[in-house]
Amino acid sequence: ESSHPNLVDFLGYFVHPTLKVLCLTFELCDGNLEQLVKANPAGAFVEKELERLFRQMAFAFKALHHYGIIHLDIKPYNILYVGTFGDNIYKLWDFGLGRFVNQEASVVTMTATGTAMYMAPEIKENFQREKFARYGRKVEIFSLGLVGLFCLTREHPTFVSKSADEPTMKAAVSGFLDSASLSSCMKVLLRKMLEYDPEERVSYEMIFFFEL
């Protein structure tokens, strides 16, 4: 159960009397981020709204990390919202793929998991080479950066594929950001969120320090 404004509240559970299955109940939201973006005209998701999304998700990550949890499936479908543009509250949900990691650990070893188009490269790269993945909390930041690109382009990041190497991915990100109508600070933030090397990638704490 959560009372955090950026995590969907779990309200309870019950066993369906006919189907005999366990049912979970959550707070009612207006929809998910994918629906919000695609239901509005191109360009509706302005930079100010992107700033709101990033900051609220950073607060969500902070709450999860306090309990040693990595979400591992950050994507538009798993971010719900309540409200309208300019007044939205964004809420993270669907923790089915989440994992616990020791608070002091910077790296965790486990099988690869997540949604391919929004998966951080260190998960794919290590899993393909070693059949297991080494990664830490910054995988969420990479995925959130890709969510940001989706909000701006209304297209899922298909350039992130099983074969996408570092030069290919960097070229795709730079190609978009070089021509995007965004402030220089937002471009810097997105580049740092989408760093191929997690050591060069910003942490969720740094999102709070960007003057957007």
Structure description:
The chain is an alpha+beta fold and 212 residues long. It has seven helices and nine strands, in the order βββααβββββαβαααα. The strands form four sheets. It has a three-stranded antiparallel β-sheet with strand order 3-5-6. A two-stranded antiparallel sheet has the order 1-2. Strands 4-7 form a two-stranded antiparallel ribbon. α2 (47-66) packs antiparallel against α4 (139-153). The relative contact order is 0.14. The model has no long low-confidence stretch (mean pLDDT 83).
Question: Could you give a quick summary of the protein structure above?
Answer:
The chain has 212 residues and is an alpha+beta fold. The chain has helices at 33-39, 47-66, 121-130, 139-153, 166-179, 184-193, 204-207, and strands spanning 10-15, 22-26, 31-32, 69-70, 79-82, 89-92, 99-100, 108-110, 133-135.
Write the layout of secondary structure elements.
Layout lengths: L9 E6 L6 E5 L4 E2 H7 L7 H20 L2 E2 L8 E4 L6 E4 L6 E2 L7 E3 L10 H10 L2 E3 L3 H15 L12 H14 L4 H10 L10 H4 L5
Antiparallel strand pairs: 1-2, 3-5, 4-7, 5-6, 8-9
Helix pairs in contact: 2-4
> What is the makeup of the main sheet?
3 strands, antiparallel
Number of helices: 7
What percentage of the residues does DSSP assign to strands (E)? 5-15%
Q: What's the count of strands?
A: 9
SSE sequence, one letter per element: EEEHHEEEEEHEHHHH
Give the oligomer, counting copies of the same chain as homo and different chains as hetero: single chain
